[in-house]
Q: What sequence folds into this?
């Protein structure tokens, strides 16, 4: 494998790495994934679902139905023990999807395989050396792989991040939990429980949701989460560790035996100081780690990938200058910083003391009010994501609503136009039409009429534009209101300068 070359190498075939590979493949970029696992099989449950904006992102690529067919629709956004219902939000997917990470990965891997992306399994990245033209990726078997760019999607202990010398500042853990799938001779009470010791939960991997209630299978292994006495343990957890923690938290170990797997997670919260060092970039857990409260990690990583993919593709293909990659850190770093802040707050609200109980009840009371509820629901679901592109129309920098369209080709939706991950300029009745000029071969121009309201989760109804430039990730880059002012600048910024290529 020495000397093998690709335009982009991705370390890690988790959800973030797979999504990024798919994005690059759609753009016609030569990309390969290096994965230390010999198969896509994932031990354990890990993340448990998708939020509304992630489902929208998958819808933009025409693959959302693959996930919806296997998961269970549910209201999964929540904070301070309050479920935040997305009913009435302006989206085709006002819900989350309960689906274990191993199934999410399997479906994404199938899509990536269809797109022809090679996954080099059983190969682990151990180091790198970058120069002006690319990166030599060092592998555990002694081989190397050459790429123009390397993206570390290799988790919180990222070898890529460490080898690139990118700092990972943040906060050490204050609490530690064991999670496991085990057989039990005594069946515990399923659900989430809190006591003076901490938080613990029991369930089964096999379940269904009826009228918002989780109904677990009658038999099978039990999934367990339990607080450890001390947050400092670093070794591989054992069955005895699990039994000890169960006795401390519940007074009984339920006869736990025959573990399928045991793992540990903490509330350590860290974020990469930079998402890019020259030709090395980071995404997903390699760029940010935090407590799993609110199910933010996997979703944030997938959306990192969708933000980065088209930008990296345009740079690799010579359409845009390298400076476009700087916008990846500028846009995604603040989003993850907010996630860290929110999850740290959620962990603080779980502390088992009377003062925290009072605070949690106060927060729950606030979330019973319409405006705070919508604000938090939009944030946690991803529907309220806003990239700061400066002053202008309230749509700019926000997700494009998935309006119903009538075009010369027939009826469609906005997200149907994004399946190939290319920018779209929607002419919705602009007088005199819209001329793309030198960008005509890079941007899809669609004349359309629309039905529906221009509404945003965080803002409500906004003024209807007559033309919109939509980036490949589904965010609005420019809005026209009876004028084409600023369109040329937006096209040059996001679709490459007119002389490029």
A:
């Amino acid at each position: 494998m020495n000397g093998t070359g690709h335009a982009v190498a991705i370390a890690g075939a988790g959800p973030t790495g797979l999504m990024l590979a798919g994005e690059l493949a759609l753009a016609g970029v030569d990309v390969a994934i290096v994965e230390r696992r010999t198969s896509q099989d994932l031990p354990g449950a890990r993340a448990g679902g998708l939020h509304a904006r992630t489902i929208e992102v998958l819808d933009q690529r025409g693959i959302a139905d693959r996930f919806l067919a296997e998961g269970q629709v549910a209201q999964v956004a929540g904070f301070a023990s309050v479920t935040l219902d997305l009913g009435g939000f302006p989206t085709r997917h006002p819900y989350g999807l309960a689906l274990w990470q191993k199934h999410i990965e399997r479906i994404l891997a199938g899509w990536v395989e269809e797109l022809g992306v090679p996954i080099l399994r059983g190969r682990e990245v151990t180091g790198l050396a970058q120069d002006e033209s690319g990166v030599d990726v060092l592998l555990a078997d002694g081989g190397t792989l050459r790429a123009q760019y390397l993206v570390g999607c290799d988790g919180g202990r990222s070898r890529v991040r460490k080898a690139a010398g990118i700092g990972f500042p943040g906060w050490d853990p204050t609490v530690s939990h064991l999670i496991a799938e085990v057989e039990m001779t005594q069946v515990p009470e399923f659900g989430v429980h809190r006591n003076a010791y901490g938080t613990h939960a029991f369930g089964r991997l096999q379940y269904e949701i009826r009228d918002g209630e989780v109904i677990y299978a009658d038999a099978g292994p039990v999934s367990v989460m339990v607080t450890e006495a001390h947050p400092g343990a670093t070794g591989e957890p054992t069955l005895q560790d699990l039994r000890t923690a169960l006795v401390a938290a519940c007074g009984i170990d339920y006869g736990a035996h025959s573990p399928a797997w045991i793992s540990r997670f903490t509330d350590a919260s860290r974020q990469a100081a930079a998402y890019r060092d020259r030709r090395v970039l980071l995404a997903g857990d390699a760029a940010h780690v935090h407590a799993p409260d609110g199910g933010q990690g996997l979703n944030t990583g997938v959306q990192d990938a969708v933000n980065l993919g088209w930008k990296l593709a345009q740079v690799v293909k010579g359409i845009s200058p390298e400076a476009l990659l700087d916008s990846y850190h500028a846009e995604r770093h603040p989003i993850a910083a907010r996630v860290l802040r929110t999850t740290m707050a959620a962990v603080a609200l779980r502390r088992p003391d009377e003062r925290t109980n009072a605070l949690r009840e106060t927060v729950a009371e606030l979330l019973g009010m319409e405006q705070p509820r919508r604000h938090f629901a939009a944030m946690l679901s991803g529907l309220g994501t806003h990239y700061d592109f400066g002053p202008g129309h309230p749509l700019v920098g926000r997700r494009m609503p998935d309006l119903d369209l009538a075009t010369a080709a027939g009826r469609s939706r906005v997200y149907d136009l994004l399946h190939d991950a290319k920018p779209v300029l929607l002419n919705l009745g602009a007088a005199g039409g819209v001329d793309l000029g030198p960008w005509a071969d890079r941007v899809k121009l669609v004349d359309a009429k629309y039905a529906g309201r221009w509404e945003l989760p965080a803002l409500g109804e906004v003024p209807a534009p007559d033309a919109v430039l939509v980036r490949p990730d589904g965010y609005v880059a420019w809005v026209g209101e009876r004028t084409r002012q600023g369109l040329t600048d937006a096209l040059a910024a996001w679709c490459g300068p007119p002389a490029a290529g």
Remarks:
- The chain is about 25% helix and 25% strand.
- The chain has a mean pLDDT of 91.
